[in-house]
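<amino_acid_chain>
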Amino acid sequence: GSSLEPEERSMEPPAVPEEEEEEGAVPLSVAPGPVGCQLFGYVGIEAVLDQMKIKTMKTGFEFNIMVVGQSGLGKSTMVNTLFKSKVSRKSSQPGQEERIPKTVQLQSITHVIEEKGVKMKLTVTDTPGFGDQINNENCWDPIIKYINEQYERYLREEILITRKRKIPDTRVHGCVYFVPPTGHWLRPLDLEFMRRLSKIVNVVPVIAKADTLTLEERAEFKQRIQEDLKTHAISVYPQEDFDQDPEDTALNDRIREKIPFAVVGADQEHQVNGKRVLGRKTKWGIIEVENPAHCEFPLLRDLLIRSHLQDLKDITHNVHYESYRVRRLNESNRPG
């Protein structure tokens, strides 16, 4: 029964006749072991964490924050309170008369802050003139232009043939948007700004000067803002799409329930029960800025600095900058 068709030749090597395996013998093809492989003794892999820590302490790192809102909402005071130092635009230019500019101007101040040997190059970008005009049409354009300019600057450095070992990072990692404490709904200006900016930068909305609202008004206002954001499909930081594991989701869900944070800023210390605390003095008592019972400033500080600072930088690089880079490279590759 020979077939007329040519015989198909297999590319695989001829099979070796299987020998009877001895009892307890190890098979030739060993499947990869489990992820948590048991070590026979101490290797020292964990020391890489110490190496990373030492390297970061030597080189330091950059963090760029932008504050946006109408004048008089306490943006400069809030930045000073966050970093417990005079880092705002107003603090570094004392004695100058504050005038509302006719157009939105962006002003950046850079400081090097050091704490326990860790250096941070902090850049604070203020937006005087935003929302202060009679006609606020397209007042977000200079801000969008500035953010994209920083992406462009980083991209130009990145595509050079000879690149710097460390590219200077001026990209905005977080934008804190100050909502006026009206107690009603978000204004069209607030909605339009966050809708446009949340696509290119991490936007963290806060209720400014929350001590002007009662606790009931504050809770109601916060709920209305959350409804507004959901209705208009505005995704503020931390975005649900970028949660990496169930642990991240659980933590960020708790934060999302509290956003926008109702904050109070103060850069003066007062004596309370024998302790010096940051707060605002009123006739009926002192509003302690770092007391969670008084305001949600500690939640904002933890989000921006203690728990999510690296995440803000990662999302800026991997999501917002990446989408800008793809768009720009597609534009440059298009035939004329």
